[in-house]
Amino acid sequence: MFEHIMVPVDLAHVGRLDRALKCAADIAKLYGSRVTYVAVTANTPGSVAHTPEEFAAKLDAFAKEEGAARGIATGAHAVTSHDPTIDLDPTLLKAVSDTGADLVVMASHIPNLTDYIWPSNGGTIAGHAKVSVLVVR
Amino acid sequence: MADTSNDQGIPNPEGASELIDTQYEIGQDNIETQVGPFGLDIHNPVFLISGLSIVAFVFYALALPEQAESIFGALRPWLTSNFDWFFLGAGNIFVIFCLFLIISPYGKIRLGGAEATPDYSYPGWFAMLFAAGMGIGLMFYGVSEPMSHFSTSLGGISEEGGVRTDWAPLGAAAGDQAASVSLGMAATIYHWGLHPWGMYAVVALALALFTYNKGLPLTIRSAFYPIFGERVWGWTGHIIDILAVFATLFGLATSLGYGATQANAGLNLLFGLPVGTTSEVLLITGITAIALVSVVRGLDGGVKVLSEINMGLAFLLLIFVLIVGPTAALLALFWDSIVSYFANLVPLSIPFGREDANYSQGWTAFYWAWWISWSPFVGMFIARVSRGRTVREFIICVLLIPTFVCVLWMSVFGGTAITQFINDGVTAVKDAPLELKLFEMLAELPLAGITSFIGIILVVVFFVTSSDSGSLVIDTITAGGKVDAPVPQRVFWCIFEGAVAIALLIGGGLASLQAMVISTGLPFTLVLLLMCWSIWRGLKAERKHH
């Protein structure tokens, strides 16, 4: 049913992603699909890495760990953005087509008042992606 | 020099890494929390202390306006007349240092590592650094400053009790129109050319180097790692960052307050908009609202787009004035201005034993303090958009090209006004108040209605492009160097800046707080000198690696 699942991850807050990661892995096992973890970084040093290259390496390591721990085929796709806070949605949407994924599984917070002004990333991706999106709350 | 890298703070890069090996993790001092529905990710204590001290100073200026004005109002002239040698001398060091880096082997070092590619194309990059740092000044002083220095030079020297009372630069050029034009242009370009851009370049290069090549957070304190070592992550660094936030926010807010007054005067001349607090508050609200949209649309979708539009518009206005104005005379003046600038550069920049104290203290030292107090903001913003350039490319584009553009701008706008005065005896520009000089000059040319309207748009949008980039800078510093802090934070700083401007405009206190901001130019001059040394250490370690 799904051949390639894309999972956006925030490497600074992996703890919050547990449900989404598990969900993606279960679906991957069910359909024998491959999982690609996508993460977006600024070009400046951040809490995760000092350079975009280091960031990509960390994401790669994360993908390998996940693959080994959950017994699925995984890959990594790191993207650099000038202004990640603002450009996250368009960057992720582009990543959907760049990776050729046919399902996006992503974590999102429970909607609150600010979602009227700034919709959650999960909501926006679900609203605009051309493929199936599973938002895990 | 003996290899003392370790106790200097910058370790020699090892293996494939050229990063500084620090215990500090970016964001380790940050507080991530939820206030109501808003997520926050702020540096503790920089965010809180800068915010509260800004509020405290606003209250002070509003509660005791006379005391604030007498303290800060006196502080600024005291600094520029007692430390003029320090400002002028430091300014020269920055220019010489930058020029040296262009020709030195360090020029080949690439910001972001040897393999990095530039983040922005030349036009986008150039538009952003120009729109953040100088656009607004050119709108107001492009006509008035050449005119002022021309008039005082023409007026010659006057003395009272052995002390010069005139404001002419150097030895003036009494009665000689041609020589006065040359001297006036040189004296103007001196304030807008190599020196201010040298100041911006030093800050920007220091931050870009320590962020992109050494892996330290994008905040002002990072440039001090070679000096203070791990202590920059403690109170030493907190104070540097807080001071930078403070200078940036008040610098922007007081400019916004004055800008609204000036834009109001222009709109009054063009459309009869009544002059008063109501109109000014509306203008500040409008400018802040546009800046808000820009910061929420982000660096690429907001700030860059607005900067490009405005630079395009400014260029069209420049071409228009050049064509419908006295074209041949202006082109001749452009060349003459360059020659005169370089001919007078050395005497104008000598820090000691100046006879033209009014000019060198009242104009030059004042400008230097002003540019330097803006340099943390402009420098940090330039650093943010400069990844992937080599040091040589960077300095040529931040120092030489803007200088060239300023010469062109001043020659065309100032030159047109001076020509109107000399050839046609038009004194409208000379007599007009500062904020109207540009419009009076345009009024003498065809299509004045359209060009003046474009002038107003340029003024407003250049305020927006300073305000939005300033909000991004403050947001980054107060988030401990994180550029991906939640959106409500940048929205907060943008609105806060507008609110401070409105409070000071209504309650009075713009003048005293602006004087205070300019006074921060003195400590920051020292900061910039230390940065030169940091850059040197940093580049040296980098070159060993390559």
Structure description:
The complex is a heterodimer of chains A (137) and B (546). The two termini of chain A are 23 Å apart. By secondary structure, chain A is of the alpha/beta class. In chain A, strand 4, helix 4 (121-128) and strand 5 (132-136) form a beta-alpha-beta unit. Chain A is 42% helix and 23% strand. With 546 residues, chain B is an all-alpha fold. Chain B has a single domain, classed as Up-down Bundle (Amino acid/polyamine transporter I). Chain B has helices at residues 5-8, 46-63, 65-82, 84-103, 122-133, 135-155, 177-192, 194-213, 225-228, 235-271, 277-324, 327-349, 357-384, 391-424, 428-431, 437-443, 448-478, 487-507, 510-519, 521-545; strands spanning 30-35, 38-43, 159-160, 163-164. Chain A: Belongs to the universal stress protein A family. Chain A: Pfam families: Usp. Chain A: InterPro entries: Rossmann-like_a/b/a_fold (IPR014729), UspA (IPR006016). Chain A: This is Nucleotide-binding universal stress protein, UspA family.
What fraction, in percent, of the residue positions of chain B are helical?
over 70%
Task: Specify the overall morphology of chain A.
Answer: globular
The appropriate CATH architecture of chain B is Up-down Bundle
User: Roughly what fraction of the amino acids of chain A lie in strands?
Assistant: 15-25%
- Describe the main β-sheet of chain B briefly: 2 strands, antiparallel
Q: What is the total number of structural domains of chain A?
A: 1
Report the CATH C-level class of chain B. Mainly Alpha
Radius of gyration of chain A, whole Å: 14 Å
> Number of DSSP helices of chain B?
20
> What series of H and E elements makes up the topology of chain B?
HEEHHHHHEEHHHHHHHHHHHHHH
The number of strands of chain A is: 5
**Mean pLDDT value of chain A:** 90
Which runs of chain B of at least 5 residues are low in confidence (pLDDT < 50)?
1-17
CATH architecture of chain A: 3-Layer(aba) Sandwich
Class per helix and strand makeup of chain A: alpha/beta
Basic shape of chain B:
globular
CATH superfamily of chain A: HUPs
User: What is the alpha-carbon Rg of chain B in Å?
Assistant: 23 Å
Determine the number of helices of chain A (DSSP H or I, runs of at least 4 residues): 4
Give the largest chain-chain interface (CB within 8 Å): A-B, 20 and 37 residues
Low-confidence stretches of chain A: none
